[in-house]
């Protein structure tokens, strides 16, 4: 993949002109093909490098890759070791040294370079004709390679390893000033020559050929087919789009294709239990369909842990995806209610700003209290804060709990006023009124007078209001007993209220009096 | 690249439907052995059966999950002329240890006088609502007004299709521009029955469902039908499983051109028709974003279809029922690993011991 990527960089993005093009391609080959360096280290490290088995192989590879300086160094070692071939080595070394190359920053024009190169080429040719290297088959083949002789190059198939190496070497030694537009001709013929009809092109070959033909669309298409995931094409297309290359190559659907591929890749990421977070970022960069794709995908992430849920919610909240937040919180709240985790359900409802569900959960809390006489999840209810306002029932729940706290802290007058306001403000559910009224009893039986006269009148009014509107129990049995118990309690309440009224009037009267 | 996992389902008869839940971690199967099984996926990716119970007194044709906003709820429909709604009860700790859960029946819908062939929940923005269709050609729409009380469902609409119905699909679009819409497919084999797909749309004024379109070009028995999820398109996409795979687009014609108050008129185009299965196609199912369609057929294969950026539909993968990939398809390399994850959200009847084939 890196091979293709680098080639695309050279051809499409750098848009190297003739001359420099070859240098880039040479770098490309050196980077990706043949592990020359380990061989080099091997041979140099040995006692007698020139007698090493792989010596000539090494020199040949160096020449094939255009690394002539190093090749020359190798030759000088051979010259030292065997004086008989010293002369030839020196000549060949000179040829290597004098090969004209385009150096970056050089002011010579392409034509000048071509001219010089032509001269040099002829000199090499002359040496070959003069049989200068006749006595050493190795040196002779090296010379032929440097002349760009195709047959000689093809002999080195094994060392070249693949057709694109063959292509670059061939260009180096026969057409160094190759122009980009001619590249594909040489590419096709190199492929054909190299394969020699023995095997057919592989997908990778097709991709590279398409690149040499500067057919971006084809490159992307071939990559889509050959590679097993969308990572490569998505990023390559994105890069090309940012370089405005997709447009210039007349792909009017350029930005659409980029987005299409990015959406594909991001969707793929969402399949993964943790990589989905990367997918989020990719969707953010898709202007048309990114947001809606993200909305659809993010709802479906299984929320196996609370941390994951919070992470997902944060992502949604950052992007103002309120419907998704509501839905996810609702799912979590529902799940909590089913598992009887009322506190959790309440906090999710609050986060979802779901008043209806908050009411439902509050009702469950109150029902639990009626049955068991105590609250679960006190921490949560005590610390509701402004969230209490979400629903009336929730407010009632919070305030009722506050009443209990006041009573526990012996802040009796506060407790009394709160209790009264709970009854008069109409937010108490009908089913709870009897409990509220009965809650007043202990307050009335305190030594000191807690309820003022006016408050006592209010309480009496509430009591009568309640008593007159109480639903008549139709079923016999348990409800009857409950009704009796209730009636007794209410009678006690009436008595206590009357007593309190008396005490309150006296107390208020005397204070004012003295 | 696909990874196939074989799950021995242990149903004692043909499996007719497989349905994944919203998150793809739970699966329900139903069978002619009259039972429904629920499977849960563990962290390691294995599927375990966490519930198995008798649901009807006849073959169970379809099973479907409600949106998790309503809790863990399933609906099933059967040859015994009923549809049922089930809710999972959080069990005792003993059960949890054994990895079992209990499902209780919340309601039975008994209005049909013939086999109920499909049941589908409506999109969540419509509340807790479901539709059933029967062999007597009637589509019934029920609603539970209190989502916390699953035992109270009321029949809201009865739509007469005049043809024996085999499948229904709700349009999942929650856009305000689109009224609720339901597509009904028929496998009626009587010679008078011609067009086998009808589209009904809810009319706000009359508060009823009225027929909006009939797909005249579909004349062969229809086994499955599915609206694609809507990514904000103005038009709808509908997939049909019949003697081949067909994909239609329905573009609403502007309201000013139609008589006001009537159902929307649509421009109908067929954008794809594939007979690669070379046999009856039994199920079609979309992925989350409506970009990939899966189909299953009597050739024992599942095929995946995708549109490229030019809106040309092509086959992007083939999977044999036994899990092995099919060779020799040059398109196979286009398969997308994300489909491996979308597969949990596709519904096909090829898992388990047998393919979903209905006996008439």
From TrEMBL, chain A:
Choose one Gene Ontology CC annotation of this protein and give it. nuclear membrane
GO BP annotation list = mRNA export from nucleus; positive regulation of DNA-templated transcription; protein import into nucleus
Localization per Swiss-Prot or TrEMBL:
Nucleus, Nuclear pore complex
Highest taxon listed in the record's lineage: Eukaryota
Q: Which InterPro entries match?
A: Nucleoporin_Nup85
Q: Which UniProt keywords apply?
A: Membrane, mRNA transport, Nuclear pore complex, Nucleus, Protein transport, Translocation, Transport
Gene Ontology MF term list: structural constituent of nuclear pore
Role according to the record: Functions as a component of the nuclear pore complex (NPC).
Could you describe the subunit structure of this protein?
A: Component of the nuclear pore complex (NPC).
Family to which this protein belongs: Belongs to the nucleoporin Nup85 family.
Protein name, per record: Nuclear pore complex protein Nup85
UniProtKB/TrEMBL annotation, chain B:
Instruction: Respond yes or no to whether keyword Heme is given for this record.
Output: no
Per UniProt, subcellular location reads as: Chromosome, Centromere, Kinetochore; Lysosome membrane; Nucleus, Nuclear pore complex
Q: Which family does it belong to?
A: Belongs to the WD repeat SEC13 family.
Q: Which UniProt keywords apply?
A: Cell cycle, Cell division, Centromere, Chromosome partition, Kinetochore, Lysosome, Mitosis, mRNA transport, Nuclear pore complex, Nucleus, Protein transport, Repeat, Translocation, Transport, WD repeat
Keyword NAD carried by entry: no
* InterPro entries linked to this entry: Sec13/Seh1_fam, WD40/YVTN_repeat-like_dom_sf, WD40_PAC1, WD40_repeat_dom_sf, WD40_rpt
**Molecular function per GO:** structural molecule activity
How is the quaternary structure described?
Answer: Component of the Nup107-160 subcomplex of the nuclear pore complex (NPC). The Nup107-160 subcomplex includes NUP160, NUP133, NUP107, NUP98, NUP85, NUP43, NUP37, SEH1 and SEC13. The SEH1 subunit appears to be only weakly associated with the Nup107-160 subcomplex. Component of the GATOR2 subcomplex, composed of MIOS, SEC13, SEH1L, WDR24 and WDR59. The GATOR2 complex interacts with CASTOR1 and CASTOR2; the interaction is negatively regulated by arginine. The GATOR2 complex interacts with SESN1, SESN2 and SESN3; the interaction is negatively regulated by amino acids.
- Report the protein name in the record: Nucleoporin SEH1
Annotated WD repeats reside at 8-40, 274-306
The protein's matches in PROSITE patterns, at most eight in alphabetical order, are given as:
WD_REPEATS_2 (PS50082), WD_REPEATS_REGION (PS50294)
What is this protein's function? As a component of the GATOR2 complex, functions as an activator of the amino acid-sensing branch of the mTORC1 signaling pathway. The GATOR2 complex indirectly activates mTORC1 through the inhibition of the GATOR1 subcomplex. GATOR2 probably acts as an E3 ubiquitin-protein ligase toward GATOR1. In the presence of abundant amino acids, the GATOR2 complex mediates ubiquitination of the NPRL2 core component of the GATOR1 complex, leading to GATOR1 inactivation. In the absence of amino acids, GATOR2 is inhibited, activating the GATOR1 complex.
Q: A single GO CC term, please?
A: nuclear pore outer ring
């Amino acid at each position: 993949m890196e091979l293709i990527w680098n080639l695309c960089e050279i051809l499409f993005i750098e848009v190297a002109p003739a001359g420099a093009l070859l240098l880039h391609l040479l770098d490309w080959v050196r980077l990706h093909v043949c592990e020359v360096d380990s061989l080099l280290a091997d041979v140099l490290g040995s006692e007698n490098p020139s007698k090493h088995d792989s010596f000539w192989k090494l020199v040949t590879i160096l020449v094939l890759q255009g690394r002539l300086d190093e090749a020359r160094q190798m030759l000088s070692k051979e010259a030292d070791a065997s004086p008989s071939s010293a002369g030839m080595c020196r000549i060949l070394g000179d040829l290597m040294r004098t090969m004209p190359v385009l150096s970056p920053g050089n002011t010579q024009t392409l034509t000048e370079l071509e001219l010089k190169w032509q001269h040099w080429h002829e000199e090499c040719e002359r040496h070959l004709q003069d049989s200068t290297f006749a006595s050493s088959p190795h040196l002779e083949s090296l010379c032929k390679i440097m002349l760009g002789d195709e047959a000689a190059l093809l002999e080195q198939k094994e060392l070249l390893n693949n057709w694109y190496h063959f292509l670059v070497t061939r260009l180096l030694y026969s057409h160094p000033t190759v122009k980009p537009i001619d590249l594909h001709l040489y590419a096709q013929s190199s492929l054909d020559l190299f394969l020699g009809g023995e095997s057919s092109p592989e997908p990778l070959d097709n991709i590279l050929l398409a690149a040499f033909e500067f057919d971006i669309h084809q490159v992307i298409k071939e990559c889509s087919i050959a590679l097993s995931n969308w990572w490569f094409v998505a990023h390559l297309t994105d890069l090309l789009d940012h370089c405005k290359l997709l447009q210039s190559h007349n792909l009017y659907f350029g930005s659409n294709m980029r987005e299409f591929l990015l959406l594909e890749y991001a969707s793929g990421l969402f399949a993964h239990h943790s990589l989905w977070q990367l997918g989020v970022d990719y969707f953010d960069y898709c202007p048309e369909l990114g947001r809606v794709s993200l909305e659809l995908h993010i709802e479906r992430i299984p929320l196996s842990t609370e941390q994951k849920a919070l992470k997902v919610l944060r992502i949604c909240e950052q992007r103002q995806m309120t419907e998704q937040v509501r839905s996810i919180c609702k799912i979590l709240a529902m799940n909590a209610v089913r598992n009887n985790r009322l506190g959790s359900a309440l906090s999710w409802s609050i986060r979802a700003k779901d008043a209806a569900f908050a009411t439902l959960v509050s009702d469950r809390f109150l029902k639990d209290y009626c049955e068991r006489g105590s609250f679960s999840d006190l921490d949560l209810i005590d610390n509701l804060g402004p969230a209490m306002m979400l629903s009336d029932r929730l407010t009632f729940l919070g305030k009722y709990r506050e009443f209990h706290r006041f009573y526990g802290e012996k802040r009796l007058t506060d407790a009394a006023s709160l209790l009264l306001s709970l009854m008069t403000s109409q937010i108490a559910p009908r089913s709870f009124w009897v409990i509220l009224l009965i809650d007043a009893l202990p307050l009335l039986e305190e030594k000191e007078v807690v309820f003022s006269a006016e408050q006592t009148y209010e309480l009496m009014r509430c009591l009568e209001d309640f008593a007159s509107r109480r639903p008549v129990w139709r079923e016999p049995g348990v409800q009857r007993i409950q009704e009796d118990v209730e009636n007794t309690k209410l009678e006690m309440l009436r008595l206590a209220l009357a007593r309190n009224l008396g005490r309150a009037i006296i107390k208020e009267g005397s204070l004012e009096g003295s | 690249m696909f990874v196939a996992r074989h799950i021995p389902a242990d149903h004692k008869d043909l499996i007719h439907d497989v349905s994944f839940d919203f998150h793809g971690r739970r699966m329900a199967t139903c069978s002619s052995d009259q039972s429904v099984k629920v499977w849960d996926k563990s962290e390691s990716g294995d599927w375990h059966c966490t519930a198995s119970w008798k649901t009807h007194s006849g073959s169970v044709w379809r099973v479907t999950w409600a949106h998790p906003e309503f809790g863990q709820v399933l609906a099933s429909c059967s040859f015994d002329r009923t549809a049922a709604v089930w809710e999972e009860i959080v069990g005792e700790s003993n059960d949890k240890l054994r990895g079992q859960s209990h499902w209780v029946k919340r309601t039975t819908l008994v209005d049909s006088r013939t086999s109920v062939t499909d049941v589908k929940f409506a999109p969540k923005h419509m509340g807790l609502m479901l539709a059933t269709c029967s062999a007597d050609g009637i589509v019934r729409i029920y609603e539970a007004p209190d989502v916390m009380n699953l035992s109270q469902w009321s029949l809201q609409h009865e739509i007469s299709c005049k043809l024996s119905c085999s499948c229904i699909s709700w349009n999942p679009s929650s856009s305000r521009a689109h009224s609720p819409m339901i597509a009904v497919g028929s496998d009626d084999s009587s010679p008078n029955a011609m067009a086998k797909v009808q589209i009904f749309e809810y009319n706000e004024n009359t508060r009823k469902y009225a027929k909006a379109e009939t797909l005249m070009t579909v004349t062969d028995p229809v086994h499955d039908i599915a609206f694609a999820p809507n990514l904000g398109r103005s038009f709808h996409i509908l997939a049909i499983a019949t003697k081949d795979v067909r994909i239609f687009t329905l573009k609403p014609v502007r309201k000013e051109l139609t008589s006001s108050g009537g159902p929307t008129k649509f421009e109908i185009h067929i954008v794809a028709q594939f007979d690669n299965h070379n046999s009856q196609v039994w199920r079609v199912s979309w992925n989350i974003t409506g970009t990939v369609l899966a189909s299953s057929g009597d050739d024992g294969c599942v095929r995946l279809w995708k549109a490229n950026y030019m809106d040309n539909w092509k086959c992007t993968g083939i999977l044999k029922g036994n899990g092995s990939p099919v060779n020799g398809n040059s398109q196979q390399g286009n398969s997308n690993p994300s489909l491996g994850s979308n597969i949990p959200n596709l519904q096909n009847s090829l898992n388990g011991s047998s393919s979903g084939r209905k006996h008439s």
